[in-house]
Design a protein that fits this description.
- The strands form 2 sheets. This protein has a 6-stranded parallel beta sheet, with helices on both faces. Strands 7-8-11-9-10 form a 5-stranded antiparallel beta sheet.
- The protein has helices spanning 12-23, 35-41, 56-60, 78-90, 103-111, 120-132, 163-166, 168-171, and strands at 4-8, 27-32, 47-50, 69-72, 95-99, 116-118, 137-142, 147-152, 175-181, 184-186, 200-206.
- It has 8 helices and 11 strands.
- By secondary structure, it is α/β, with parallel strands linked by helices.
- A hairpin with a 2-residue loop joins strand 9 and strand 10 (184-186).
- It is elongated.
Length: 214
C-alpha cells in the first residue's frame, strides 16, 4: 500500500519534494494558498489543493488524519507553519516534518510537536562542502546523525584492483552496497571484478570515518 503524504507549502523545496515522492509511488496531496502554484503541480501529484494554511479551520478541512506523513514546507512563514504542525499533530498524524529557516524557528516548531526539523539551505551547503573537499565524492546523503551514504569514484590507487584486494571495510571502514559501471547501478557485486576508471561505488560509513576517504 502506497504511503500517504501531504506537502503543505509549494515553494521550490515543497514543490520538488511533492512531485518527486509522487514519481516514487507515494499518494501525495500538495497544498498551497496560491491558485497558480496549485494548478502548476496538479498533474504531478495525487491531489492538489488550494487552502489558506494560516487558517486552522482550512487546515483541519484538509483531512490530514488520513496521512502517514505531513511535511510543512513553509520555512519563511512561522505563523502558518505553527498552525499546520499543530493541527497535523492534533489530527493524529504519526510523523510531521517541518522546514525551518533558522534554528530558533526550528526550536519553536519542535515545541508544538514537529517530529523532525529540516534546514534545506543549511543541509545543502554542508553537503556541497563535503563534495567539494574531496576529489572522490560525487554525492553525499545523510542517513542518520552518525551514518551517511556516499557515491564515490575509486581512488587512483584502487583502479585495476578488486574489492577483495582492496578490503575497503578494513582499510577505509566503508561498506559497499552497490557498484555502477557504464551507467548501470548493480546491487549484485562481483568482489573479484577489478574496478575501472569510470566505476562508481555506493558506500555506507560512519561520518567520523569520512577522513579515511579524503
Amino acid at each position: 500500500m502506497a504511503k500517504s503524504i501531504a506537502v503543505i507549502g509549494l515553494g521550490r523545496f515543497g514543490k520538488k519534494l511533492a512531485c518527486t515522492m509522487y514519481d516514487m509511488g507515494a499518494d501525495v496531496m500538495a497544498v498551497d494558498k496560491v491558485e497558480e502554484i496549485v494548478a502548476s503541480v496538479s498533474g504531478n501529484v495525487t491531489f492538489a489543493v488550494m487552502a489558506d494554511v494560516s487558517n486552522p479551520d482550512a487546515v483541519k478541512g484538509l483531512g490530514l488524519k488520513e496521512m502517514d506523513v505531513v511535511v510543512v514546507a513553509m520555512g519563511s512563514d512561522l505563523t502558518s507553519s505553527l498552525m499546520a504542525v499543530m493541527v497535523a499533530k492534533e489530527e493524529g498524524v504519526p510523523y510531521v516534518m517541518a522546514k525551518a529557516s533558522d534554528h530558533r524557528m526550528g526550536q519553536i516548531l519542535e515545541r508544538v510537536g514537529a517530529d523532525k526539523i529540516i534546514y534545506p539551505e543549511e543541509e545543502t551547503g554542508v553537503r556541497t562542502a563535503r563534495i567539494l573537499l574531496s576529489d572522490s565524492f560525487l554525492e553525499f546523503f545523510d542517513i542518520d546523525k552518525n551514518l551517511c551514504l556516499l557515491e564515490i569514484k575509486p581512488k587512483p590507487e584502487w583502479i585495476g584492483k578488486n574489492l577483495i584486494e582492496l578490503n575497503l571495510r578494513e582499510n577505509y571502514r566503508v561498506n559497499v552496497v552497490a557498484v555502477k559501471d557504464h551507467s548501470e547501478m548493480r546491487s549484485f557485486i562481483d568482489p573479484k571484478r577489478p574496478l575501472e576508471k569510470d566505476t562508481e561505488l555506493l558506500v555506507i560509513l560512519e561520518k567520523a570515518d569520512l577522513k579515511y576517504l579524503k
